[in-house]
């Protein structure tokens, strides 16, 4: 689900039509068949796995793993909580573990008639595999699994420094409680994770106005925290619509919500967003690049605020957002004034914002002691991941296939399983390692979701090269930066 948001961000800097770049350096490992990968994904999609019903698809992946030389681990096997893994070594080996993770569950299909092909057919037309989950995120899981399978077949794995585990998780689309959160709560020590690669950004063209053909890969290193709140008010006011009191429940709630939604919103630049804009501006170059690179300068504040107010998605990167998603009363006739009114808020908090302090801020802005605020759900608070050797190996793996591409770390405004791993202080990076078109992005959670053979191949190759660079200690460039330099640069 993250990928669609990333592309919306990139489109803020786009002025020309989208065009997909095909790398000339994408050569599948000799031990991997693209046709077999397509067949595996197609069959995986055919196992319908809307959140809460992941078992059939999970068993299909489990059976496939048993046909390989990888080690199978089933963490849980319930219909709504089925989590499993394929690993290079048994988890009992205790080796430091590189985790490649995706989710089994998918969102429901609203109208089958709007699809060109049955959404659970996994239909392959010679270029694209169609079906719910093709990109989000069954295709990602197949990329990871086939890359690990090829690496094991191609290299002597007698005593490599790292284990590698491909995780297939439940319930990502509903918050991860029965997926990533369950696995970490019960198997953290056994997993022994040192880095996690999951879903996130992707590669895209026409991002840089001055260099429209240059591919930009976005790797998420941080996410906003989700905080879902319920606002409820109960009164004992008159109940007939013909003679309303001045303070009946709906009116009180509407007035409080107006106070909240009309508040002045602060722009919150943090380490992740400053780094993101600095890298993007450097890649852009020229005067435009200068402004992007220094977007947080106070002297540019009037221009920046005006631009952000025109771009809701850009605003979501730099502010704590509050969205009123539901307002309702108990059932009743049109002329009955309800004594109870409820609203639901979807709040997304910039890293570094305390959920507890933000709730107090909400209560102050509502300015009504009769409104009771309760937490429905919240994702874990997590610090952004540092740009360590694993991130740089990922950059190098991308550069091997896309030598002229730019890789940029960014803050993602939504929430995925990556945030759960980050809350355990495990560096986590979000990326679908391929160049994606706008048409493909729009299919995620929509109609005619699809993945091209080029995307599938690119993902397998980049994951494979990433494993080579880490496991075989192949030299990789540091891009003139180490962790300490990265930290010190943030204050500039």
**Average residue pLDDT:** 87
Kindly state the number of beta strands.
Answer: 14
The CA-CA distance between the termini, in Å, is 33 Å
What class would the helix/strand composition place it in?
Answer: alpha/beta
The main β sheet shows up as: 8 strands, mixed
Q: Return residue spans where pLDDT drops below 50 for at least 5 consecutive residues.
A: 1-21, 478-492
How do the strands and helices of this protein lay out in sequence?
Elements: H1 2-11, H2 34-46, H3 55-66, E1 71-78, E2 81-87, E3 97-103, E4 128-130, H4 138-154, E5 163-169, H5 180-191, E6 193-204, E7 216-223, E8 225-234, H6 249-261, H7 271-284, H8 286-293, H9 301-310, H10 312-318, E9 321-328, E10 340-349, H11 355-366, E11 372-378, H12 389-401, E12 406-412, H13 417-422, E13 428-435, H14 438-442, E14 450-452, H15 453-471, H16 483-489
In short:
The chain is of the alpha/beta class.
Q: Descriptors for this entry?
A:
single chain; 492 residues; alpha/beta; eight-stranded mixed beta sheet; four-stranded antiparallel beta sheet; 14 strands; 21% strand; globular; disordered N terminus; disordered C terminus
Report on the structure:
The chain has 16 helices and 14 strands. It has 492 residues and is of the alpha/beta class. Strands 1, 2, 3, 5, 6, 7, 12 and 13 form an 8-stranded mixed β-sheet that branches. A 4-stranded antiparallel β-sheet has the order 9-10-8-11, with helices on one face. The chain has a two-stranded antiparallel ribbon with strand order 4-14. Helix 2 runs antiparallel to helix 4 and helix 12 crosses helix 15. It is globular. The two termini are 33 Å apart. Mean pLDDT is 87; it is low at 1-21 and 478-492.
